[in-house]
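Worked example 4.2. Below are the chains of a multi-component assembly; read each line carefully before continuing.
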Amino acid sequence: MTKNRISFIALMFLAVVGMIVACTNPFKDLEISVSSNVFKNVVNLEVGSSAGTSMENATVAITGPDADKIYNAEGKKLFKVTGGFLFLAVDPNVVVNEQAPLNINVAIAAANHLGVQIPVKITGSEKITMRKVVLLNTAAAAADMAIKNTSVALGANGTPASDVTVNIPPPAGASESATITIPAGTQFRDANNNVISGTDLKVSMVVPKTGSESLAEVFPGGTGLTQPAIQTASGTSAGALLPGGMSEVSFSLNGTAITNFSKPVDLGISLDPDFVNPETGQKVKAGDKLSVFSFSSNNPIWKHEQEATVQSTGGKLSVNFSSTHATWFLAGNFVESCDNALKIKLTADWLKNGVTHPVTVKVFSSAGGNADKLLVQKSITATDGSELRFDDLPQVAIIIKTFDADGNGLSETKLSDPCNGNQQIISLAASPVAGNPKTTMQLYVRCPNQAQRVNVLPTFYLYYKIHGQTGYKLLGIVTNGYISTTLLDPGKKYDFRAVWGSTVKEVNDVAVKVDNTATVGDNAAGGEILGTKAGATNLELLKEKCKEAGL
Amino acid sequence: MKQLLLLSFSMLSTAMISAQNGNDAASAGEQRFSAGIHVGTQGFGVHVGYQLHHRWLAGLAASYAPYGYTATRTLGKNAYDIKMKEQLGNVQALIGWKPFAGEHAGRFLHKLYINGGVAAFYKQEANATATPKNDYQYGDILIKKEDLGTVNAAVQWKKVAPYAGLALRGLSLGGNVVFNADLGTYYLSKPEVHMTADNLLSENTSQEATVQKNLDNYRWLPVLQVGVAYKF
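Applying the procedure described above to all two chains together yields the following structure tokens:
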């Protein structure tokens, strides 16, 4: 009897203890990871060539007062154009805002291209800023751009025996051209002012069509026609340069770049007859006064050189002046900038519920109520309510136009006063290429030795094209592995290219569905993907990334 | 909450009336009431009891337990300081039955009761907050641990839970003072986990399902407590 009682108590006790120890470790399989997107402010430069060639071999240098705060996607100081992008990220420990912006200069150089120096101001108002940079290919002509490369034989003393004139004809469909005359006896000097000897003088000239939209992409300074700092006759100011004619002139003697001359050389720049002189509000005419500005890659800021009077010769308008250095020259006008940035908010019913679409916003000067010169443009992966800002817009009437992924116009807004500091709300008309059902793409990642999927997902740029066609187009920024779009047609097959930091991956021949959830992993039988190109390499890459993450 | 208290009192009242009308009620003059304090796994508290019958005992108790401790764990690649904070407060209504009431049960077993009842939890917080123990190296960038963020998991159960267990009641300590002890468990509802996170750890809320799965079996809340009471 006593035995039974003791057994009863023992059983009750064991039952309670059993309940306690039966519980699972609350931390079992729990992995807390730091986000792969540690950066709060990113500038992504889409770097291209006017000749359409790859810029992967371009050299990049970051300078300026805040260069030490800039890193690549891997948190390193190695900067490279990958997949057409140059990714610049601000040290996440640095607080950036409009009161404490960062200023850097991005220098990009590539063989057979004019190098660019791009001032970048990071204010924090846009977490991801996208800008397009196009390097001028000096070996191949492009639309809206005339290029001339020629050789001049010098005397044994390294100077022309007589005056030498080089003329570059206008680009197709344009009137602008340029002429340079080098006086006899001119000596040629390098950047250190050393006289260079030789007999084979290479002369390169570029003349852009100043009325074309493509000018903003290649305009020296890298910020379109708007510039954060311009040395004017009365000091340094932000503002916009409105060109009536432009030319770039460069020389090399026996392979050494020439920057200046012992004697002034004469330059003549033919003007676009449709150029509206901001001083008069009328088309440019003989007798008008225009300003001549220059821009040298050695000191990347537009500088006022002199005033020049417009002359008419044989029905062609031109300005003529002298200079002792080789560089970019611009004949036109400077308009000082607004004190306030222009803030824009995009709204669209068809971009509600998280749907995104790559939208380009272009700001034009206004002439006679019509869009004139493209001052600056920005691209954004927009959704309903997206905001962006434009700095250094001139104190003149402007026209804002927005375009969808295929260049279809979505809105046109005329602003007589862009300086009032008010937020401009722009309603976007429905894009004709975004009428497909909403498709979502959710990418998960599972490390090869783990049962669970990784909980921290990448943010990357995703491009697409219909399978078999050429030319990728931006689909948008995939945030934490997710994007929702109406650009893709369910049922069709597409090729995708993802650009994540210095990593570029392509997945081809993918039939799109409304829900395109996919897991990157090594279980092909389970439907996981590793990409259709270089799967073994991708697996090693996945393992490496997982190892870095401690998974 | 008010309804639960009313329920508890009505259970106790019913039991008392039933006992008073019973054929085997305790003899007149016996000290039926007791009041005391206790301490144990559900914290500290007070309790009152009433001997309904020589085999039946009714009781009410209130307890409060503030727990908290910090531990360091490696979760994934990095180590985190995990601060646990738990506050449990309940009002408990119990009925006890003495299984060994015979004369030969022995002094110890004679005081043994099988308890059953219900508790209303007026305070029920269980939180775990994970903060990185070390700074984080990303490439050449050192991100301070303070800037990485925190991950918080909050666990909730329903406010009412049944209770069952064993109890020793009325072991004399001299005079009218007696010693009591309890061993039992609550059976809680299935816990609900809610995770929040911020800054660079914000994406870890996706781990909610994992924590939920791990805690699904956390339905038994054991009780081991001792106390003293005064009989009158």
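Take a moment to check your reading of the output against the notes. Chain B touches chain A through 49 residues (CB under 8 Å). The two ends of chain B are 30 Å apart (CA to CA).
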